[in-house]
Design brief:
Helices cover 34% and strands 17% of the residues. The protein is α/β, with parallel strands linked by helices. It has a six-stranded mixed sheet. A six-stranded parallel sheet has the order 14-13-15-16-12-17, sandwiched between helices.
């Protein structure tokens, strides 16, 4: 049972804003620093409710703002927003914003840590946030029910949410921008056509379709004949043509590589189509996402459809200085890009058809291949290039936006990743940049999504991914 002194001290607080009679309809959200770092606009995403920032959060922003990485840029943006609000009135008393909400910086004058359980470090900032939440909640509990506002801690830190719950404080994850992965998974749709239409599809490589029945642009479709399911084909719906286009055959080879299943057929069809400028390949480890993208990219560069193949992956966290490793840029980023080298060496060893190219080094020396640290992507203009971003699930939505907005005319960009293998502590399977792009671009003519399911690396790798 909470000490009544907390209630008495909370009730004695001064400088409170007058509380409206409809305050019970509103809520008080106490934000953790990681929410602001994750989304600098989060201050304004709580509708007409009240947003409280403990003073320790401001101190953490001050620590984070120094640097050139995304975390530092976001911290600086939040500080600028708060400084603009400060011009409208004292943040310690709360400043009203356009949507009817209120933003306030809590000085924690009554949150000295006595409210916390003895086991918690009272000097740790996470725990001071909880102490501030306890005092704010006690203050509301002391008020008449008609004007009482629920107090909710919002944090991307699961451990802080657990501690808050243990202390009787409502805690939530920051949900803005979260997308259920199931909502962006590429679905396998089926349609039935006349048997002679199946023959037309194989002969002409496409089949006019007058009534697409809600098919999305570039969606994967299984086409069945009327007389037998065995008389069928796999196709992609092209909205601009009002037609189904036959997928690449399993017999076709791109840089020595062919599709091993229908999902890979679909992925290669998207990767080899120049009119589809943005592709996301989603799937677990071993399904061939990176290998397929590299094979298609090399094939397109060989055809001179693109000036070069550019490959990158997050040097986690994005923006971390790579200067601590010896050598030039290539030497510094090689440990992070070794999986790319492994895949390229495999493609070259199987007969890519690129004369004189025996190693990734040969590709780079010829100008066909470039390794691009995402650290330095800001400000670049990438035109006429086949650009692959591997492990894109470790990017935030804002980082992905920064990358895609660097794309110039004639460039194709491919994002690959597994939403369930995330190393970035500020995002999860529902809020990462890979899933965000897939959701936002769904239905666009220049976008395609392929979900790879079956592991093709080896029978052992596939079994391990299932049972371990």
């Amino acid at each position: 049972m909470r000490d009544n002194s907390v209630l008495r001290r909370a009730a004695s607080r001064t400088g409170e804003q007058p509380v409206e009679r409809d305050a019970a309809m509103k809520k008080i959200y106490i934000l953790d620093t990681n929410v602001l770092i994750h989304d600098p606009k989060s201050l304004f995403n709580f509708a007409e409710n009240h947003v409280y920032l403990p003073i320790g959060v401001i101190e953490e922003l001050d620590n984070f703002k120094k640097g050139a990485d995304e975390k530092a840029r976001n911290a600086r943006e939040v500080v600028r927003q708060l400084d603009r609000l400060r011009e409208k009135g004292p943040l310690s008393e709360g400043v009203e914003i356009e949507n009817g909400g209120l933003i306030r910086v809590e000085v924690d004058s009554h949150a000295d840590g006595k409210e916390l359980p003895a086991a918690l470090d009272k000097l740790k900032n996470d725990n001071r946030i909880l102490a501030s939440a306890l005092v704010t909640k006690a203050d509301q509990d002391w008020r008449p029910e008609a004007v009482r506002m629920p107090v909710i801690v919002v944090s991307k830190d699961a451990n802080l949410r657990i501690k808050a719950d243990a202390m009787g404080i409502t805690a939530e994850d920051y949900k803005t921008g979260k997308i259920e992965q199931q909502s962006i998974t590429s679905e396998e749709k089926s349609i039935t056509v006349a048997d002679n239409d199946i023959d037309t599809l194989y002969r002409e490589k496409k089949l006019p379709l007058e009534n697409p029945d809600g098919l999305e642009p570039n969606e994967f479709v299984i086409v069945h004949g009327e007389s037998s399911d065995k008389h069928s084909g796999v196709a992609m719906f092209r909205k601009s043509e009002s037609a189904l286009r036959l997928l690449v055959s399993k017999k076709e080879r791109f840089s020595g590589l062919g599709a091993r299943n229908k999902e890979q057929q679909y992925a290669l069809s998207l990767l080899m189509d120049d009119s589809i400028q943005l592709v996301t390949l989603v799937g677990k480890a071993g399904t061939g996402k990176t290998l397929l993208a590299l094979a298609a990219g090399l094939a397109k560069v060989k055809e001179e459809k693109y000036s070069r193949l550019v490959v990158s992956r997050p040097i986690f966290p994005l923006g971390r200085d790579v200067g601590f490793l010896p050598g030039d840029v290539e030497a510094k980023i090689r440990p992070w890009l070794q999986p790319i080298f492994d895949n390229l060496e495999y493609l070259l060893s199987t007969g890519s058809g690129i004369r004189g190219m025996k190693s990734p080094k040969d590709l780079m020396n010829s100008g066909m291949l470039e390794l691009e640290p995402l650290t330095y992507i800001r400000g670049r203009n990438l035109a006429t290039q086949y650009f692959i971003v591997d492990e894109a699930q470790n990017l935030t939505p804002h980082e992905v936006k920064t990358i895609i907005t660097r794309v110039g005319e004639g460039t194709k960009i491919v994002l690959t990743g597994d939403p369930y293998q995330i190393d970035n502590p500020y995002i999860d399977s529902e809020s990462n940049g890979l899933i965000y792009v897939a959701k936002k671009f769904k239905g666009q003519e220049m976008f395609g999504l392929a979900t790879l399911v079956k592991g093709e690396r080896s029978s052992l790798a596939e079994l391990a991914s299932v049972i371990l």
